[in-house]
Structures are given as C-alpha cells and as structure tokens.
Amino acid sequence: MRMATIRLDGVGHSYGERAVLRGIDLTLTEARIGLVGANGSGKSTLARMINGLVLPSRGRVLVDGLDTRDRGARIRRRVGFVFTDPDAQIVMPTVAEDVAFSLRRSGLDAARKRERVTAALERFGLAGHADHPAHLLSGGQKQLLALTSVLVTEPQVLVCDEPTTLLDARNARSVTRLLAGLEQQVIVVTHHLDLLTGFDRVVVLEEGRVVADGPVEESLAAYRDLVD
Amino acid sequence: MGLYVPGDSLLHRARAGVKLAVLGAVLGVLGVFRSPGTVAAGALLLVGATALSGVGLRTMAAQLRPLLWFAAFVAGLQIWVSGPRQAALAAGFLLVSVGAAALVTLTTRTQELLDCMVTALRPLRRLGVDPDRAALTLSLTIRSIPVILELSREVQQARRARGAERSLRAFAVPLLIRTVRHADRVGEALAARGVDDL
User: Fold this and answer.
1) Terminal C-alpha separation, chain B
2) pLDDT tens sequence across A124-182
3) Number of folded domains that form chain B
4) How far is A205 from A47, CA to CA, in rounded Å?
5) Which of A48, A102, A131 sits opposite B193 (nearest CB)?
6) Of B83, B108, B133, which residue is a domain's last?
7) A111-127: burial string, b at 16+ Cβ within 10 Å, e else
C-alpha cells in the first residue's frame, strides 16, 4: 500500500488562551510513526489534526495535498482514527452491527457488506462474537472491535490515540502485534514505548513544540532525558 | 431492555416489519376487545411463540420480572377504581404486551429494527425528518444504556471509597460530568467515522 504524505505547515493551535501547539512543520511519509510527549504536550491535538477532527488555528495540514480545512470528508475516508476509550467509539449495540455501520455509505449491496463484515471479524478474531452485545466484550475485545470497525473501510492511514492505555499487558501486546502487521501507514500516540519497537520514526513533543524527531532509539533517548 | 438472542427459528427469520405489524395487530385487538378470554388467548399465544422462538421461557421471564412491581401497582390502583376483574385484566394486558414487544426485540437484530424504522419514517422526510439520523439516535441510545450504567457503578464505588456513601451530590455531580464527557467523546468518534460527511 502506498504511504500518504502528511504535511503540517506552520501549524499552531490554541484552546482559548492556552496555546497547545506552536510552529509545527512536519512531513510524515514513513510507514510507522510514533508521537510521544508528556500529558498536555499537544500530541493528541496533533493526531486529531491529521483527519481534520481539529482544524489548526494557524497554518495548514495537508494529506496527499488535500487540505483538512475544506476536504475533511475526503480525508476522513482515507484516514481512520482509533481512540483510547473504545466505549466511546462503538456506536452500535452489537459487534457485527458496529462493523457494518462503517460501511453504511460504501455503496456496496447488502450481501457484499455482510461478506466484508464477516471477513473483518474473522481476521481480527471476533467472528465468534458477531451477534454479541458490545458491552459484554472485555476491554481488549472492545478495542479490537473499534480497530475492526475502522479497518473494515480499508483506510490508507490509521491514526491511533493511545490505543493501549486502558488495556492490560496481554491485550496491549496483542494490539501492538496487530498494528505491527498492518499494511497501512500507522501513526500512534502513546505512552507505551514498547509499542514503538520497529517503528521508522518517532516525534517527541514538549509544550506544543517538536523537541526531537528521528529514528526510534535517538528520539526515545531524548524523550527519556526530558522526563528525567 | 431485550437484547437479541441469536437463533434460526421462524420468528428470527421473519422480517422485522412483519413482526412489528403482527405485534401492533395483536396489541390492537387485545386493547379493543379486552376480556378474560382475549387476554388469556394472548398469553397462550405469547408462551407458544416464545417456545417456538427458542429464546427460552427463562429469558422471557427475565424480561417481565422488572415489570412485576409496576403491574402490581397498576392492579392495586385498578382494584380500587374499577374492581378486581378489571385489575386482573389490566395487569394481564400489560404483561402480555410487554412480553410480546420483548419477543420481537429478542428475535430481531437491532439493525433490522432500525432499517424498518428508516423505511417507516421515509414519508416524513418531506416534513424535515432525517430517517437515518433518527435511527442513529435510537441505536446510540440503546448502546449508551450499558455504558452509563457502568459509569454510575464507577461513581458509586468512588463515592464509597471516599466514605461519602449517602451524599446524593457525590453521586449526581460526577455522574453528570462523566456522562457529558462521554457524550463529547462519542461525538468526536462519530465525526471520525464520517457521520457528518457526505
């Protein structure tokens, strides 16, 4: 799968008086990119800019040349987003219905949709839960469902905001493995540094600025210095 | 709230619209011709249909149990207003109606009910009703019930941990805040899933 080019051009953002991002210039083209930083460093806001959930107060964000400001809908079809709390992301009462919800405007006929949903559930190990109510799944299964519902639309890019924060170690590992195996371009905000093993690039944010940007080991060394 | 019980019975295979129409017809008949005979026939029909559906009489009983105190309340009121015969009829009618409605939700996927609702609301489009949005609102409501129950459990535990068990404020305020925050996140997730895009 071709990697998208995500460009942040002089991006700054404020919530009221509080500036959360300042002067960000980044071009993201790698297959695996991590965003790390302390709480309040602006990394979640930056992640939300990639699919236009947050529009920058200053500067612009381009995904393959499309501006998130006026092409948000097109971009959201290409950029899937996984949140920390799957309970907020699962909108349908049962597992298969939530996956099908993602395909409601795909233009596929009912039979093709069902096929796609079944295949996706099988791929991510939820086939046995298709008709189960979502609230009876374990935390790990809920996050798997959230991921399945995003990936069933076959986005080109997957952005994840702390996808393993609410999970136990075992489920965090399985989500990590799952993300590693995807053909998509993956951008992950995380505090679980294990998740970044094998990544191509890690960007470190501190108080709304990029303070380190490079290969995993170098960036994480800089991040550890910052924390200590 | 009845939740779908997977199965392959005649009731499961029947179309949602047909089931809703039959439900409406049965309740209509029972409402208009309310007598010991019709209510008893309705109850028998309900038991038969439950057995046919394979969801199990126990599941059906679980649907009706929360209703018992309410039925008793209605019956009590009716005894006072119009005598024991009417009271028994009212309570019986209530239980049969709710049981029949529960049987429809137990044997029909939520998605089918929602599709049916979208079809039914389509003529109202001219009046400015968006059927898809109405169906989404309904499914979000169904989905939110267990989530908010879980939030209230958490708040209750936090309240106990802080030794403020009897404080209504220590329950209502955090629950409200968490619910609003949850709503905010759901909104964000819907936007990310392209709900407002077209």
Assistant:
1) 33
2) 999 999 988 898 899 999 999 999 999 999 999 999 999 999 999 999 999 999 999 99
3) 2
4) 12
5) A102
6) B108
7) eebeebbeebbeebebe
Q: Is A107 exposed, middle or buried (0-12, 13-18, 19+ CB in 10 A)?
A: exposed
For tokens 């996808």, the residue is A163
Asked if B39 and B77 sit in the same domain, the reply is: yes
C-beta of residue A148 within 8 angstroms of C-beta of residue A124 = yes
Chosen from A76, A129, A145 to mutate, greatest number of chain B CBs within 10 A = A76
Q: Judge whether A2 and A156 are in contact, CB under 8 Å.
A: yes
- How many residues would you count in chain B? 198
**Which token pair is A219?**
């960036």
Contacts of B136 in chain A (CB under 8 A): 91
- Residue B185, judged by CB atoms within 10 A of its CB (0-12, 13-18, 19+), counts as middle
* Structural tokens at position B14: 């029947």
Whether B111 and A92 lie within 8 Å, measured CB to CB:
yes
In whole angstroms, what is the distance from residue A137 CA to residue A40 CA? 31
Size of interface A-B (CB pairs under 8 A): 82
Q: Which residue intervals of B1-53 are DSSP H helices?
A: 10-13, 16-32, 36-53
Domain range A6-89+140-227, its CATH number among 1.10.3720.10, 3.50.50.60, 3.40.50.300, 3.90.180.10: 3.40.50.300
**DSSP for B125-173, written as a single string:** GGGT--HHHHHHHHHHHHHHHHHHHHHHHHHHHHHHHTT-TT-SHHHHH
What does the block give as tokens for A91?
């909108």
DSSP string, B113-125: HHHHHHHHHGGGG
Interacting residues of B196 by C-beta distance below 8 A, sequence separation 6+:
B190
User: What is the ipTM metric for this complex?
Assistant: 0.89
Which residue has tokens 């800019």?
A49
Residue that is written with structure tokens 């136990």 in the block = A168
B84-126 pLDDT, tens per residue? Answer: 888 999 999 999 999 999 999 899 887 788 888 888 888 888 8
Question: Rounded CA gap, A58 and A45, in Å?
Answer: 13
Any CB–CB contact under 8 A between B8 and chain A?
Answer: no
- pLDDT value for A77: 93
* Six token digits for residue A107: 């233009």
What is the nearest CA distance from A167 to chain B, expressed in angstroms? Answer: 17
